[in-house]
Amino acid sequence: MNLGRGLLAVACAAFASAVAPTAVDAVEPTTADREPTSRLLVDHGGNLHGGTGDVAAGPMPLFELLPSYSRWRSHTFNYFNSAKQFSGAVKQAAAAWNRSGMKGKWKPVSRGRADVVIKVNSRIGVAGLATSYDGRRGLIELNAQTLKGKSPQARATAAGVVAHEMGHIIGLDHENHGCTTMSSVLWSGCKPPKEDWLYRCRLLEADDVRGAVKLLGGKVKKLGKESCPLEKAPAKVTNLNGTYNNEVQTIRLSWSLPKKNAPGAVTVRRGSGDGQCPKRGRGAQVSDVGRDRATDYGLDPGTYCYVVTSEGKLGRPGPSTNVKVTSTGASPEASFTYYYDLDIYTAVSFSDSSFDPDGEIVSWSWDFGDGSAGSAERDPFHVFPAEGIYTVTLTVRDDSGNTSTYSEDVYI
């Protein structure tokens, strides 16, 4: 803390990192700060606690207030922003506080009417510095060398630092017991987004607003979304088709990529074989996937629903489309043996030796090559009309409807 122009002032310095949680300001002590009743801690039930010691960490965070002499003495914060490169961050931070539910308003005005001035000062050695002069005038300084970058994360960090410094002008001290903007390390108690394509974009937490409501009145309103996407959701694939090849027992999928907002990748998931499509993120993931095709192997007979989902370059899922393909399993292999009858020289006994690798054979169809009606028996006995060479053909069908044919010349 410092004394400025004979007026008591509270100064808060913000430290920033462009990547990790942003380290923000620590209150500089003065003689007044060392008084045993100079600090008030307020819990979620609105109870005041006087004292200088830290509050034991409990199941919920506690907002903290600056000494009463440094809190703002009005419900209006008339500010002028001369830090033009941070105009977006300042507007976002002011809007976040204005819609938070506190009975106070950050209002942009001309320099001559401003009670709080926001400016750039890259020599402060920290990301931001908030100074409140006896609760009637304030100064927020932002370090353009530290708060730089145009990525969404960098812009959110800058807006978070501004919101933090505005909180000090309101009268909030640091809070390090949970997920808060007013923590000495910005959002350090907050869990990072679960997905790489998300970044933290919510500028205030409920604990921050509860502190402002305690000072200014009002009611905490519903907070906005905590995370925002870093990329636009990709468009879905089109012309999705699927075919089954029973010779090699594979299902092959193909699709067309959209010309606009094409996905960076696609994921393909398969249902269980009962024709039901898996829900998003469920089902077996197909591993052999290319930009516009996929191949699935070794499937049991059944009807499979394949869900193809577009993904952005950072992994953001887009819309899905699906196709159903029926796998009939492996085909049987027809085969037979035969032997001649010793009593009738034109008679032959045939014995089926066909097999099915993933089921059973259920029908047989014999063509003896002599113009006769043939036979549907498994092991038929047949008398040929005369001596000669006859091409005998056996066609078998399995329980999945697959067929196989085998032919052999029989000499009579």
Q: What does the secondary structure layout of this molecule look like, with pairings?
A:
Blueprint lengths: L1 E3 L2 E8 L7 E2 L16 E3 L5 E3 L12 E3 L10 E6 L5 H12 L6 E4 L7 E5 L7 E6 L3 E6 L9 H19 L14 E2 L11 E3 L5 H11 L10 E3 L8 E8 L4 E7 L8 E6 L13 E2 L2 E2 L3 E5 L4 E10 L5 E11 L8 E5 L6 E6 L8 E7 L13 E3 L5 E10 L4 E9 L1
Parallel strand pairs: 7-8, 7-9, 9-11
Antiparallel strand pairs: 1-2, 2-10, 3-12, 4-5, 4-6, 10-11, 13-14, 15-16, 16-20, 17-18, 17-21, 19-20, 21-22, 23-24, 24-26, 25-27, 27-28
Based on CA atoms alone, the radius of gyration comes out at 39 Å
Helix content: 10-25%
Q: Looking across the biggest beta sheet, what order are the strands in?
A: 1-2-10-11-9-7-8
The percent range for strand residues is 35-45%
- Could you tell me the mean pLDDT? 85
CATH architecture call of the largest domain: 3-Layer(aba) Sandwich
* CATH third-level topology of the largest domain: Collagenase (Catalytic Domain)
Number of domains: 3
Indicate the structural class. Answer: mainly beta
Low-confidence stretches: 1-10, 15-24, 26-61
Q: How many strands appear in the DSSP assignment?
A: 28
Q: CATH superfamily of the largest domain, please? A: Collagenase (Catalytic Domain)
What is the highest CATH level, the class of the largest domain? Alpha Beta
The backbone outline, from C-alpha atoms, is rod-shaped
The largest β sheet comes out as: 7 strands, mixed
Number of helices: 3
Distance between the termini: 116 Å
Provide a quick synopsis of the model:
By secondary structure, this protein is mainly beta. Helix content is 10%, strand content 36%.
